[in-house]
Design brief:
It is a single chain. With 300 residues, the chain is an alpha/beta fold. The protein folds into 2 domains: 12-54, no CATH class; 60-298, Rossmann fold. The chain has 10 helices and 8 strands. An 8-stranded mixed sheet has the order 1-2-4-3-5-6-7-8, with helices on both faces. Helix 4 links the parallel strand 3 (101-107) and strand 4. It is globular.
Length: 300
């Protein structure tokens, strides 16, 4: 299926996307979402169509096939003694490599390791990196096959144990035999927030960090950050964007090397090409900036 077949969203005011963002992140019930849509003069049928358009169609998200001849991909476990005991993720490597390669930890949204995030890992491998995408839901059997159940499962887990699992993954990757010892982190939504947290908590481990539309690192940890950061935000993502001005003051105060990119006409989740929030032009621009950033900071 081609890019031209991407899902089309109903023509609705920006406030509808903000309501959906709250609903998708557990900040609003389904009933409250429909009540809010009614307040925008959107009838129930159109509100239902809108929710359905936001559900992922993973047939649309595969940019790199799992059996692409240029990469090798497999699932790999790693120890996580302070988390759930053991983690598992999707490890993807370029098939032809002249020597050790930098490694990128890929952190999913708030719903487990879905096919979109696996494809992101494959895209990184095609670009010359070793990529590893852990599944926060592994202790419950792994991503269940749909995002709604995955979101519920992730919400049921202890957030600190999830964080410990990603910490363990970063430390494990830093020592990966085929790796160069340089580690980048990229994450989306929940994963964006976790990216910043790892940069703050593992300053001697993380060498470059790219959070996509996630909340900033904890304020009391910003002073610890050594890794350069590229923050990727959607212009229309009011909830997340409102968190960053205060963080910017601290980033500047502590002389953290960072830049913030805001992508025009883009909602929260604009990089996810399996839903109608996808903005193809801005997602591609953000991805090229991500690869350039990792090339600059992980290959030197």
């Amino acid at each position: 299926m081609t890019k031209n077949a991407k899902q089309k969203q109903p023509q609705l005011p920006a406030e509808a996307y903000q309501l959906y963002d709250k609903y998708a992140h557990g900040l609003m019930s389904r009933r409250a979402f429909f009540a809010g849509m009614s307040g925008l003069a959107v009838n129930a049928a159109l509100a239902t169509t809108f929710i359905n358009s936001m559900l992922p169609n993973y047939a649309l998200a595969e940019q790199v096939s799992f059996n692409d001849p240029a990469i090798t991909a497999r699932y790999q476990t790693f120890p996580s003694p302070n988390g759930h005991g053991e983690g598992r993720g999707y490890l993807v490597q370029p098939k032809q490599a002249a020597g050790p390669l930098p490694v990128v930890l890929v952190i999913h949204e708030n719903r487990g390791l879905n096919p979109y995030i696996e494809d992101v890992a494959r895209r990184l491998a095609k670009a010359g990196f070793i990529a590893f995408a852990p599944d926060a839901l592994w202790s419950l059997g792994g991503y269940p096959g749909n995002d709604d159940d995955g979101r519920t499962m992730q919400r049921s887990l202890d957030g600190e144990k999830i964080a410990a699992d990603f910490t363990a993954a970063a430390l494990w990757l830093k020592q990966l035999e085929a790796g160069s010892g340089k580690l980048g982190v990229v994450g989306f939504c929940f994963g964006g927030a976790m990216t910043g947290r790892l940069a703050a908590e593992l300053p001697d481990t993380v060498n470059a960090a790219v959070p996509f539309y996630g909340s900033p690192p904890p304020a009391d940890g910003i002073a610890n950050i050594k890794a350069p950061m590229l923050v990727q935000l959607g212009e229309l993502d009011e909830r997340v964007n409102a968190m960053w001005p205060a963080a910017e003051i601290l980033l500047q105060q502590h002389k953290v090397q960072y830049s913030i990119e805001r992508y025009t006409n883009s909602h929260h989740g604009f990089h996810n090409d399996s839903t109608a929030r996808y903005n193809e032009a801005m997602a591609e621009l953000a991805w090229q900036k991500t690869l350039q950033f990792f090339n600059r900071h992980l290959l030197s």
